[in-house]
Structures are given as structure tokens and as C-alpha cells.
Amino acid sequence: MDVDIPSSPGKFKSEKPHHHYLRLLLRWHYSSLHKFLCWTIVAAIVLFVLFLASPNLSSSSPASLHSSSITERRSLRTSSYSAGWGDPAWEKRVRDSARIRRRPFGISVLVTGAAGFIGSHATNALKRRGDGVVGLDNFNDYYDPSLKRARQALLSHSGVFVVEGDINDGPLLRKLFDLVAFTHVLHLAAQAGVRYAMKNPGSYIHSNVAGLVSVLEAARSANPQPAIVWASSSSVYGLNTEVPFSESHRTDSPASLYAATKKAGEEIAHVYNHIYGLSITSLRFFTVYGPWGRPDMACFFFTRDILAGKTISIFQGPDDATVARDFTYIDDIVQGSLASLDTAQKSTGSGGTKQGPAQLRVFNLGNTSPVSVVELVSILERHLKVKAKRKFVKMPRNGDVLFTHANVSLAKKELGYHPNTNLQTGLKRFVKWYLEYYAPPSGSYLPKKGRSGGSSSS
């Protein structure tokens, strides 16, 4: 029977023989080795499981969903990625889509959010004039993805390849920049809408802040560095009461989380311009509408509900104040966006290091003629030949602002920007598209399934 070893060894000699200590040492050695092997096996299993569940792995695997369970809690559901991600056939489609046919002044552009409303129009316009264009979109379900798929089909018919992927997927972005020496990035991917931020705030941080950083990181590491044009928003003016809104006005009082993320994006753009020499242009869009528009925008859901015989709610401010927006037709927005690309100077960084001062610009792109929501409804009634059932309600505290009004004198001077589509003409074109796209063969104008929503200041 072993004798207890004292807590203060060395005060007296042990009377145990040397071979006894050898047995103890061997017993300890094999016990420790056994424990070490067990924990090593457990650690290996844990690491293997984490490796399989890694978002980076799943984002680069063509057979898996891009979003991990953590990502799904903070963002919207997205489609699974196309089979053959990164294979030779996929790479060929990317290169073919990026091929420039307009010489000698053509550009090669990566358009994020290419299956979105503004993104699809801008992408098509670039392709039509002979530029190389590759699209990127995650086809999330913020609104009916079938509308995005229809836009994708139109772009595919024009020869544009829209890659299915997320802007937060670093390996995918690096792969695209490895395949194509993009001269420009038109970054339009974002989580839009003012009201939805109250339901899913995480999606705005994920897309509008982290997503922007992901795109800028890929761009600053590319060689050569592309020039960046990206979508900010008129929402950054927030509670500003100076009219019309000018780029020189303060934008430090956002009224919504959406606005705050766009303001944060402008500050982040300044940092990447300052440190890495990226040429960056921020575009503050004012309430864009037109054919192929978003279902959460006023003219869209007003049209849908008027045709369905539903009562529409028209917001009013304090003391029955009128709500007005600087509605801007999509073709005018596209003209300003392409002019921004054409006048963007080259980035000055090399190998991720700034070599000299780089261009940094901010422009308003609006129509300059605010129209009340009441007048918007009246115009829709005339084009639809249907009387709306109206209900006036107080504007809820959801981040919407009472009015927007753009001063575009800077864009006129620097970009040659001239909006020339009034609301009467623009809504006529929108209604024509809506009836053609949503009217079933029976002729009754019952809209396809889509997400209902509220107005947005974007």
C-alpha cells in the first residue's frame, strides 16, 4: 500500500525504493498519454465539424448554401449558388461577359446588385454601349425573387452573366478580380427600404456596412485597383430642413437605421480613399421609380392595391402636412450613374498601398421637382383609369421623412446630369410595364405574388 507523499517534499527522505518511483512515473506517463490522445481526437473532431460548417468554406463550395446559420439570423434567405462555381465553364462565362466591345474608351465593370431594380437597368445600359459587364447578386427574398429572376433573364439575353453570390463572400470577390481586371465597380447591392429596418436591423448592417467594406477590401487589394461608384441615398439628409438638399449640407441626423448605414458607408468610403487611394464616388439617389421597380416602393404598391380595389393609406405629417418626394425616373438615374463611371479618375493605390491623392466625390441624383404623394396617386388614377380608395393616416415613427428635394447643380456641372422625365411621363411608362408584366391571360389585373411594403426614401 502506497504512503501519501507529503505536501512539502524534501523535509524528510522517503523510504520507498527507486523501482517504486519508476512504476509511478510509468503509470503517470501512460495515463497522461491516454488523456492527451483522447483530447487530441476530440479536438480533431471539433475542428473537422467547424471546418465543414465554416462560412468561408460554404461560400466557396458550389454545392452548398452560402449562408451559415449565423448569417441567416442576420440577413435574408438567398438562393443556393450555381453548380460549377469557379469551374472552367463558369470562368469562361465571366470572362466573356467582361469582354469590352467599345473601343478605345470602353470600360469593364463589376455591377453588384445587378438583378435589382437600378442594377439591372444600369447593367443593361453598359452592355448596350459595348462595355464589359459582370453582374453579382444573391437573389434574396426581401421581395419576390421571381422579379429578380426575370431581370436576370433579360440581362442574360443581352449577354450579361450575373454571378449568384454575396458581396460578403471574400473568396468569390477575389476570384472575380483574379479573372477580370475590372476598371470600375458599380456597387448597388444593398438592403433597401426604410421600414424594414425595424423588423430586421441586422440585414442592414450585414449588407450596407459589412458588405461595402467587403467590396472595398477586394477593390483595394486588386491590381490594378478599380474606381468605385456606389449607391448612397437621399436618406442621409435625415432631419435636415434646408431646402433643396445640397451635398454641402450636414448629414449627421439620420432618421432611420437605413439612413444611418448609408451615412456610415460614406464615412467608410472616405477612409478607404484616404488610406488606400481608391477613387470613390458616392451617389445619393432620390426616390427612384420606373419599369421593373421594387414592389416596396410607393408607385408600385399603390398601383397594385388600386387595381385590386383595396384602400390605400396616404401619410400626412403633423397638422395634416403634405408628404412629398423628389421622384426620379430610372433612366435619369442610369444616365447619372454612367456619367459618374465615365468621369471617375483612376485609383492611385498599388498593392494595397496609396501612391498619391485619389478622387473622392459625392453627388445628388434627383429630379429637382418634389411632388406630393396625393398628386402621385391622382396621376396613377388617370393612367389606370381606376378611382383609388384613399385613407389619410398620420405618418408613423418608422424613419420616413416628410419630404425630399434634390439640388443637382453639382452633378450638372461635373457629370452633365440633366433629369428630363417628369412624373406624368414616368408613371405612364411604369403603368404600361406593370400591366404588361402582371396581367394574366384572362385580362383581369391581379398582381403576381410579391412582398407588400411601405414607401422608402431611397
From TrEMBL:
It is a multi-pass membrane protein. The keyword Membrane applies. Its EC number is 5.1.3.6. This is UDP-glucuronate 4-epimerase. It is found in: Golgi apparatus, Golgi stack membrane. Signal peptide: none annotated. Residues 109-345 form the NAD-dependent epimerase/dehydratase domain. One of its GO terms (cellular component) is Golgi cisterna membrane. The keyword Membrane applies. It comes from the Eukaryota. GO terms for molecular function: UDP-glucuronate 4-epimerase activity. The chain crosses the membrane at residues 36-54. Belongs to the NAD(P)-dependent epimerase/dehydratase family. It catalyses: UDP-alpha-D-glucuronate = UDP-alpha-D-galacturonate. It comes from Dendrobium nobile. Pfam families: Epimerase. InterPro entries: Epimerase_deHydtase, NAD(P)-bd_dom_sf. SUPFAM superfamilies: NAD(P)-binding Rossmann-fold domains (SSF51735). Keywords: Isomerase, Membrane, NAD, Transmembrane, Transmembrane helix. The lineage of its organism: Eukaryota, Viridiplantae, Streptophyta, Embryophyta, Tracheophyta.
